[in-house]
């Protein structure tokens, strides 16, 4: 065990010595890989920040029926009863939101206070909010919304789920795009480390020959190159996290004012630390894998 | 693994005079090297060796003679497992090399001290670091490795130059450094290809003395050389290689040279 540790310590020392002997090349490689890794990392930060936005809304579709403004209260109640009657058949939940309740809720939101204050009276209609339940709720919602839109007491029907679905579709699209980008970046990391190790292996040809001559195993010969690949990729991954963190700070400065104008506190944030550590481990492993592949191919002499 | 156990060896013992446990050398058999119908060709039609057959006894000192390009270096590289025969069977200490798994070959090389014509020294590190490399490869602790490397360098008379890089040494010193690196792992088989080429007589004699010291404690030693005086001086068996054939044994073989040096 001690012998094994000694050989690893020697390999690590050899790697650090080789990297230090070519500081410009080493730093350039690390910088290229780090900047490449930063792009998907910032993309991941955007998706990580958007994800809760969709989750804070009801997962069940909601249909809001805005009644005709000035509709007498008796007709409003009749409409509510008709909807409730259908609700029993369709497993629906129905809630009545009077124009006064809606006005009070809106006034509590700072972004709307000034606008409502400028109006002479309450412009909001009475509304009925219908929440659909069941596994096929999303499928049946458009048909219900279309049917209720035909009622004369109903001024407008809004299917609240639609925009969330669009946002989720957009996020899924972005996730797929990010996955493809990550695969592309992984290929760049593999190629960069492969080529760096190839050059290093050719430069160390004499050392490898001598090591084999005196009885070095192939593991002993390969080990410094594996460390080189893992260290280069690992340090680059760490640097990319730092660059992404700084980028997110600057982007949030610009985003804060925009989000506040919509009454939102939306800000970009990097994925959680366990995920970032996983990212670091995956990139370092990718570097080691590429280095092994390269050194195995390029030391057959 | 292949030749003997080093578990009880003194860390500073490298040269034969510092080999207190040399009597404990445990060979698996009395024949160290066997060649049976060995052919080696490079490319098309260029036969470096043709149908070579010979045995080398454990502990024997053997000279390999012949003109340039006769196949001496090829013969030595085959024994060290650095190249593979095109045909035929080579056994080193009972292990048939062609049947040895690739992962086992490094362990064979650790027990064979090889000094090639091209000494293959690393110029980016000191003479000492060149000698200590085989011990790092075998996973020795730093204290033991450094002590043994110092002893090996001392044995070849390079103590005062151990901090110099090989490129700063003369040809003779580089040859001696290569010998120090070859003996530091206490090999049971020592192979040298033209170790005295381009050296003056005094330097050549010092190098031969090192090999003789190892031979006297039972290390099988093979020396390829052009030097006819050297071959005849010691009255040892000679394999004469010419045009790829081991054609004659000029001097009768002496199988067990185990007598201690006086």
Sum this structure up briefly.
The complex is a heterodimer of chains A (301) and B (262). Chain A is of the alpha+beta class.
Features:
heterodimer, A: 301 residues, alpha+beta, Alpha-Beta Plaits, 4-stranded antiparallel sheet, 4 strands, elongated, B: 262 residues, alpha/beta, Rossmann fold, 6-stranded mixed sheet, 7 helices, globular, disordered N terminus, disordered C terminus
Describe the protein in words.
The complex is a heterodimer of chains A (301) and B (262). Chain A is of the alpha+beta class. Helices cover 74% and strands 8% of the residues of chain A. Chain A contains ten helices and four strands; from the N terminus they run H-H-E-H-E-H-H-E-H-E-H-H-H-H. Chain A has a four-stranded antiparallel sheet with strand order 2-3-1-4. Chain A is elongated. The model of chain A has no long low-confidence stretch (mean pLDDT 86). Chain B is α/β, with parallel strands linked by helices and 262 residues long. Chain B has a domain of 111 residues: P-loop containing nucleotide triphosphate hydrolases (Rossmann fold), CATH 3.40.50.300. Chain B has seven helices and ten strands. In chain B, the strands form two sheets. Chain B has a six-stranded mixed sheet, with helices on both faces. A four-stranded antiparallel sheet of chain B has the order 2-1-4-5, covered by helices on one side. In chain B, helix 6 links the parallel strand 7 and strand 8. At the A-B interface, helix 1 and helix 8 of A face helix 2 and helix 3 of B.
